[in-house]
Amino acid sequence: MSRSIDYGNLMHDAMRGLIRKVLLDVAENGLPGAHHFFITFDTSHPDAELADWLSDRYPSEMTVVMQHWYDNLDVTEEGFGITLNFGDAPEPLYIPYDAIRTFVDPSVEFGLRFEQQGEDDEDDTPPAPKDGKAKTSTSKPDTAPEKKAEIVSLDSFRKT
Known about the structure:
single chain; alpha+beta; 4-stranded antiparallel beta sheet; 2 helices; 18% helix; globular
């Protein structure tokens, strides 16, 4: 019986651990300096929790911005809960780490992307908004995605 090391899943676990540690620090100490996050996640993930109107509007994925206004950041082993403002309407969300597709902190040109099986090699992720307001995006639905690892180049997040 042949056994192999699943580097892709090991790397994804490590990247999710990094996100968890960053969010734990933010929960305890707040966002330092100009740091802010664009987090794109799978809204159809079975453990994701969001208002019905948000899941109806964004049935596949959504990008949220964690910057000036957020509340109730609760970081757990499996994901995090947060309340964000959508057009002057505070809405609680729960985002499991394995629902996250991208995590970007443009203030330091850092980003992680979790690849889904069947995605094109081209980057079709919309550019991060610059106004600090909650933004959303949609994409084509996935069918039983299997995740694979990708080496992320920080050059794709550099300001030009």
